[in-house]
Amino acid sequence: MGLFLFVFPDSSILDFGYATLDNFFSLAPYIMLFLVPTITMRSLADEYKSGTFEILKTLPLSPSKIVWGKYFGCLLVVAMALLPTVIYAVSIQQLSSKGGIDVGSTVGSYIGLLMLGAVYTAVGICTSSFTNNTVVAFILAAFVCFLLYSGFTAVSKLPVFANGADYYIGMLGIDFHYKSISRGVIDTRDVLYFLAVIFLFLLITQRNIGRR
After folding, report:
1. Residue 126 pLDDT > 80, yes or no?
2. Which residues of 7-43 are buried (b: 16+ CB within 10 A; e: fewer)?
3. pLDDT in tens, 88-103
4. Which residues are listed as membrane-spanning (predicted)?
5. Would 4 be classed as within a structural domain?
6. pLDDT digits (tens, 9 = 90+) for 54-68
7. Exposure winner among 145, 170, 176, 187, fewest CB in 10 A?
8. How confident is the model over 144-203, as pLDDT tens digits?
């Protein structure tokens, strides 16, 4: 990400001449498509493969405790991966000649990015619960996250939905709500959407490991 923002000429902020992190927040969701599944792919798949899942099930832990424990452990790693990127905001703020970056929009974008990472983590935990192959878990998580982020937006742009249905189809995708929060306004509907998707995938995961 640092190379994209400060080195490569086509996307360099230093060559843009305007203090903004728009390039970062537009590229970050796609970088996280590969980063988060890498973090989550071993969460349950490796337990199945190594045989430690049977030991885990003998402990006085309910399926929900196992799932939420795995989830918050992976989410903490994702949050720690995002934390150093605050340096980008500080750097651009210090390098700007006047005005600086839009603080409200930047804070909103970081909140949106964290919630996006939370959804990707839930998806990664869920796909990892279906297989004992970590590579398959990674590919499935990346594919599902891509569909959730870009799939509904792509479908909404089809001419057949140009009569007004495109707006509602777009609302089903993560991209719509991520961009809404990135404007700097925290809308309750956007927050509820992210929470609903997280709970849905974690519920599927809980049911899945409960049957094993």
Report:
1. yes
2. eeeebebeeeeebbbbbbbeebbeebbebbbebbbbb
3. 888 888 877 776 777 7
4. 24-45, 66-90, 110-127, 134-152, 191-209
5. no
6. 888 888 888 888 899
7. 187
8. 999 988 888 888 787 777 777 777 787 888 888 888 887 777 788 888 999 999 999 999
**117 lies in which domain range?**
21-210
The answer to the question of residue 7 being in a domain is no
In a domain, 11, yes or no: no
Quickly list DSSP for the chain.
-HHHHHTSTTT-HHHH-S---HHHHHHHHHHHHHHHHHHHTTTTHHHHHHTHHHHHHHSS--HHHHHHHHHHHHHHHHHHHHGGGHHHHHHHHHH-SSS---HHHHHHHHHHHHHHHHHHHHHHHHHHTT-S-HHHHHHHHHHHHHIIIIIHHHHHTSGGGTTTHHHHHHHTSHHHHHHHHHTT---HHHHHHHHHHHHHHHHHHHHHHHT-
